[in-house]
Design a protein that fits this description.
- By secondary structure, the chain is mainly α.
- Among the domains are: 132-298 and 414-439, Citrate Synthase, domain 1 (Orthogonal Bundle), CATH 1.10.580; 300-409, Cytochrome p450-Terp, domain 2, CATH 1.10.230.10.
- Helices cover 60% and strands 2% of the residues.
- The protein contains 22 helices and two strands.
- Strands 1-2 form a two-stranded antiparallel sheet.
- A hairpin with a 3-residue loop joins β1 and β2.
- α14 (267-277) crosses α21 and α16 packs across α20.
- It is globular.
- Bound molecules: coenzyme A.
- Coenzyme A is lined by residues 70, 297-298, 301, 333, 338-345, 390-393, 397-399.
């Protein structure tokens, strides 16, 4: 591991102080390690609140209330923090550091998402053995109930895959350990335990749900068997029909890792956390998060990007000049639409998740015509958005690149792309839900005002 990575782990994550302890006790399961960490973390939160509880994060303006609460500091999120210029850090690690630090599959170059989940939950980099144990545990939990299979099978083929995904995830609540324990009168100190069980079940079952939707909508509905000795991304790829393509499987590992978490304020993460605060179980909470992810300004942008690029191709043809591409971008803006894949509510530089995918493309598909067009667009769009003068961030986000990679390997069913985003985002939302319950986070209930009230408060002052 790089010295810088070690430093990042040591200095930027509170929990990472326990890194060496975890490595020694490598036979420990994730749940056992979590059980050790929770009392320490509860004490740490108590200390932070006692010392800094009355500290202010700054003013709260009327513009922020009308402006989608941009920059309003109102959430605690343990798994990741987003810096406007640098991008995301997972428990203190940047994306390149995460790629370097986390265990890989034999022959693979990209981090295993199992390791990312361990990192998000504990703040620690797991051993290979720990990662393998998570692969095995998720494989063992992966089967979905028959009635959920039937629900998916009964969806019309032209029902958007994200709607089908949301229906199936919500229905998993039938077997929620949390809902059952709550009905039996569980002590609130123990909420995290059934939440953990549900979180693990949720993540484990997503490949089968996603695969079934994919095969129903785009194939003959027959599900292949998976190899229980393989990792999460390999089995997800098998369900999608790409299990034999090693590069695609490695792409899935990268994809799931980088789409997993983007601090707490984005629509899907915040929705999962908000709904969970009512003690709705992780399936209901994540089902709600998925409905937010299905919006075109959020996760659905990755389907929109490819559509937009393909439309552009049909207008500008093969190997277009920069002028032709620019003309097309301007026509999008002039018709009152956004350029999908560009801009961000928080980021102000190129999204490192875009860069990680670009580097993957440079390694594996440098001469692909669609990749070349995406790279050409990257040179042109930021200047146009700057010239147009509205977007606060003219740079590409994560969604500007994912479609071209998936299409290259043959997964060109664009309507399905956000489902893959949804599989990944569960890692971040589920890990936070465990901590929400472990730390006793209360019902979320911010204050709102009417326009008439705001006028009355400030008129003449
Ligand atoms: C992500 C997004 C919703 C952030 O919204 P935001 O925080 O309100 O962004 P800004 O503050 O920069 O928006 C200011 C203006 O610029 C516009 N703008 C922002 N990004 C733009 C883009 N990619 N293309 C065209 N216009 C854009 C906004 O629509 C807004 O216009 P308005 O004043 O007429 O309402 C926005 O950048 C966007 O719509 N991007 C395209 C969709 C996308 O890629 N989503 C995935 C995000 S990860």
């Amino acid at each position: 591991m790089l010295a810088s990575t070690r430093n990042a782990i040591r200095t930027q994550s509170r929990l990472a102080r326990n890194f060496s302890a975890s490595s020694v006790a490598s036979a420990q399961s994730l749940k056992e390690r979590l059980a050790e960490l929770i009392p320490k973390e509860i004490e740490e939160v108590k200390e932070v609140r006692a010392k800094y509880g009355d500290k202010s994060f700054g003013p709260n303006t009327v513009d922020q209330m009308y402006g989608g609460m941009r920059g309003l500091k109102g959430l605690v999120w343990e798994g990741s923090v987003l810096d406007a210029d640098e991008g995301i850090r997972f428990r203190g690690l940047t994306i390149p550091e995460t790629q370097e630090a986390l265990p890989k599959a034999p022959g693979g170059q990209e981090p295993l998402p199992e390791g990312l989940f361990w990192l998000l939950v504990t703040g620690e980099v797991p051993t290979e053995e720990q990662v393998k144990s998570l692969s095995a545990e998720w494989n063992a939990r992966g089967e979905i109930p028959d009635f959920v299979k039937e629900l998916i099978d009964r969806c019309p083929r032209d029902l958007h895959p994200m709607t089908q995904f949301s229906i199936a995830v919500n229905a998993l609540n039938h077997d929620s350990a949390f809902a059952k324990s709550y009905a039996q009168g569980i002590n609130k100190k123990d909420y995290w335990q059934p939440t953990y069980e549900d979180a693990m079940d949720l993540i484990a079952k997503l490949p089968q749900i996603a695969g079934r939707i994919f095969r129903n909508v785009y194939g003959d509905g027959k599900m292949p068997a998976v190899d229980a000795s393989k990792d999460y991304s390999a089995n997800l790829s098998t369900y999608l029909g790409f299990g034999d393509n090693k590069e695609f499987v490695d792409l899935m590992r990268l994809y799931i890792t980088i789409h997993s978490d983007h601090e707490g304020g984005n629509v899907s993460a915040h929705t999962g956390h908000l709904v969970g605060s009512a003690l709705s179980d992780p399936f209901l909470s994540y089902g709600a998060a998925l409905n937010g992810l299905a919006g075109p300004l959020h996760g659905l942008a990755n389907q929109e990007v490819l559509r937009w690029i393909q439309k552009m191709q049909s207008v500008v043809g093969e190997n277009p000049s920069d002028e032709k591409v620019a003309e097309y971008v301007w026509s999008t803006l002039k018709s009152g639409q956004v350029v999908p894949g560009y801009g961000h509510a928080v980021l102000r530089k190129t999204d490192p998740r875009y860069t990680a995918q670009r580097e993957f493309a440079l390694r594996h598909l440098p001469n692909d015509p669609l990749f070349k067009l995406v790279a050409q667009i990257y040179k042109i769009v930021p200047n146009i958005l700057l010239e147009a003068g509205k977007a606060k961030n003219p740079w590409p986000n994560v969604d500007a690149h994912s479609g071209v990679l998936l299409t290259y390997y043959g997964l060109n069913q664009q309507d399905f792309y956000t489902v893959l985003f949804g599989v990944s985002r569960a890692f971040g939302v589920a890990s936070q839900l465990i901590w929400d319950r472990a730390l006793g986070m209360p019902l979320e209930r911010p204050k709102s005002f009417s326009t008439a009230h705001i006028k009355k408060m400030f008129e003449g002052k």
